[in-house]
Amino acid sequence: MKFKAIFRQNPIGFITVALLLLSTLISSYFDYKIAIGLGIVFIVVLITQLVYTIFAFKNTKKYVKHLSETLFPDIKGNNSDFPLAAVVCDKSGNIIWYNKQFCDDIIEGYEIKSLTMNDFFEDFSFSKIAEEKVSDAHFSDKKFTAFSVVENNLMCVYLFDDTYLKNISQEYYFSRPFVMLMLVDNIEELSRSLTDSKFAMVSGGIESLIEQWLKTESVIFKKIANGNFLVIGEKRNLDNLCENKFSVLNKVRNYTYADTPVNATLSIGVGSGTSFSECEAKARKALDMSLGRGGDQAAVHTDEGYIYFGGVSNRANDSSRVSPRRTAANISTLIKQYDKVYIMGHKYSDYDAVGAAMGMQFFCEANGVNAQVVIDNKTTLASPLVTLANNNGYKHFISVNKALDSCDDDTLVIVVDTHRQALLDEPDLYVLAGAVIVIDHHRRSEDYIDDAEIIYTSPSSSSSCEMVTELIQYSTILDSIPSVVSTGLLSGIVLDTKDYVLRTSQRTFEAAGFLRDNDADTVAVKKLFSIDSEMSELKNQIVSNGEIHDGFMISTTSADSKNLRIITSSAADDMLSIDGVRASFVLSKLSVGKVQISARSLGEENVQLIMEVLGGGGHNTMAAAQVKSTNLENAKIMLLNAIEQYKSNK
User: Which of 22, 288, 412, 479 is 20 to 30 A away from residue 394, measured at CA?
Assistant: First the structure.
């Protein structure tokens, strides 16, 4: 038995023996009686240690022999004659026994005394490997499948060398194909605003940027139309592009021509799989997702969902009126095919949801189709607008229960201001309907309603009310809009633009002007947003309790108020007026174990990406999330972690 093997059984014990010996030798120079006493203690401890260690070592060998006879009953003789490389370790990962195959086939000349099980496993854990029983191991350039057996706080690990098979498996994984579809978001806008020669130079410059980005990868790059590109490659190339975080997005966004910013942005959809047809289908879905989220980003379709890169800026607005005209015509055709039309927004509907619903009700009525707005008076946050409409003779609101009772296959449901089934004011209404239309301005989430007959999303629009106003404005409807409907639509625009401060464009002001020409009551809109003194006091308290973390201001409140959602949203808006605050978050307690987060920004930071980490969503400047099974303190920690993750991905 080698001393190093014995020593490994109990190194602390032998260190104690060595210290006793040293003490005995030193004391012999001063007092031989003490030295004799220490010597006796030294001998007793040494004998005890040797007996214990030898006994433990024999137990280890007995354990190994037992395993050998159990697993390989036909093999006789020495314990080292295992057909597989075997090694025994203790709970700390120290190697205390190994066979000849392990020495000859695995370590091949390495000093065993310098090795532990950490050299074979990533973050070695005795309990974890014991529980898994079969795991992956590696040493040098070899790869193994490890089979573990545990008994008496010892683990025997058998290592099967399957380097060849694992290399083949890895090569198969890295050689799987991927398809990437790339689209210059505002290519049509560029073609209209530039002369033919300048447009050719700009589009060529963008194409050159993409070529330079891909030059180090073995991929096929093909231009299929103006501003449309196709890339085909292997998974190994895609992993490199993902690690590079699709840096081409920043290059295209910052591209200049003749020292003048072009303001071009790129949308990318990537799909990978076992066949090119599967990859192409996934890539198209991913590109739709990228565009639905506002463009200027890459969406990679994986088996676990989507991975996003970029999306931190606002895409330039498209001033084309083709889309609303075409969509208005398609909706007009579809609604005439159904006996009943119900229009609803999201849970806790706000002015944008209710105003857009009122606008679509008028759109249907002007096309000769009766429609009603589904409203839950108990949860809506737009009660002042509902009251205003009722007081002005608006008779098109219907309760959720009445709508459910009459909803069937001959019913068309129009969903406004959301595209997620989980956020619908009444999901069962969507399930019972014969067809669905979705109109929304939020950036698309993965759980969007994908079976709608018409999906009209425009993340560049300020609000759903702006989108509905355009549908009315650029359709063939000749009737003037009732004042109460115009007022409702205007209130939604005012809400989501924060009095025309955020996400406004030429189209926003044109829509507001059109509504004003149709008797929208601006004074009534202003009164809709008034709050009482109690609400004002609570809002100021929330703002004053805020803490700034590197430009991100966070405040929490445990206050109980029926208007808490309105107050927290308003407080988050007010926090943005504080110098140095780029984004604001207000956390409030909705119920036991449920926390609501209202998030706002001025556009420099994308709060939607932060809220998505917590299971929420929204727009880049206005988003929200509900965190379940937690309290305010833990929710704040989760929010801070989400912010750090967002900052690291920028």
Answer: 412
